[in-house]
User: Fold prephenate dehydrogenase from Sphingopyxis lindanitolerans.
Amino acid sequence: MMALAHVTIVGLGLIGSSIARAVQERLPDVTVTGHDASSEVRAAARTLGFCDVVADDPAAAVAKADLVILAVPVGRMADAAVAIAPGLRADAIISDVGSSKRGVADALGQALPGHLVIPAHPVAGTENSGPAAGFATLFEGRWCIVTPPAGAPDEGVAAVTGFWQALGAKVETMDAAHHDMVLAMTSHLPHLIAYTIVGTASEFEEVTESEVIKYSAGGFRDFTRIAASDPVMWRDVFLANRDAVLETLQRFNEDLTVLQQAIRRGDGAKLEDWFTRTRAIRRSIIEQGQDDAAPDFGRKH
Ligand SMILES: NC(=O)C1=CN([C@@H]2O[C@H](COP(=O)(O)OP(=O)(O)OC[C@H]3O[C@@H](n4cnc5c(N)ncnc54)[C@H](O)[C@@H]3O)[C@@H](O)[C@H]2O)C=CC1
Ligand SMILES: O=C(O)C(=O)Cc1ccc(O)cc1
Assistant:
């Protein structure tokens, strides 16, 4: 990997602080500077000590950086890029960790003309947010998808790829539009379903709130974990990846109608066939040792 001496992380929440902690543990020779727009988060970062330096000013934070990683909600990427622009070295690589890629890549390209932008998405996280929620092992054995723009220089892609591998991630590259379609299905739609079902349950007149809590040891409990994910982050993901999410939602609704019809008609064979197929999918994921990792995204560039 290209020698990285100095990495700056902008946004010191779950993902930014996890990157900083992982660099401290795995790349001890790399200096980490952090910046966050929130003074409370900057104060927490100083107390927690996962950065070598926490800078109050975004442009000053990036002045020495070989690599800058933007770890802010996808709707804030453009603001964050504009704020660091005056301080960037001409040869710095700018990357991000946003959960959707096409809109972010466009926004960063526009905000940072002439700079090398290589977006990425570590497909690893939790329902928690903030600087105290991060941990150094978050990316170990998990996928990180790098979405280089057309014509991106190999050295830049290799630097971002090598960085994530050094943090323990497995790296795949694909174009941003393909990323957004795959993640709409495997991550964004499941979050939307969880937000829906937990909201629906809480409004269901016959089920009191205490019963929702009492009986949530079943499948519902898994949905409540996902539905506890950060509201601002996920608001931005759905707004940014609107087209791909609506496309997958359309297919999901059609399939839901098929199952609804099977239940109404008493078509047990249809239900059993469907559930047998999904059980086989889960079992093959486990056999491939991928139950804790992203599915095979298939397309390599
Ligand atoms: N939470 C998760 O599980 C995952 C999140 N991501 C992506 O990572 C990014 C960050 O998410 P989290 O770390 O979970 O969020 P978080 O809410 O824990 O942290 C975001 C931080 O960004 C700061 N911030 C907001 N606007 C800013 C600006 N203009 N300049 C500087 N700082 C600013 C906030 O003060 C906050 O501390 C998002 O784009 C999200 O889509 C990617 C993979 C997993
Ligand atoms: O907590 C979970 O189950 C997640 O799905 C975490 C997550 C959230 C957003 C991402 O872009 C990637 C991973």
In short: The chain has two domains: 6-174, 178-287. Residues 176-203 form the longest helix (28 residues).
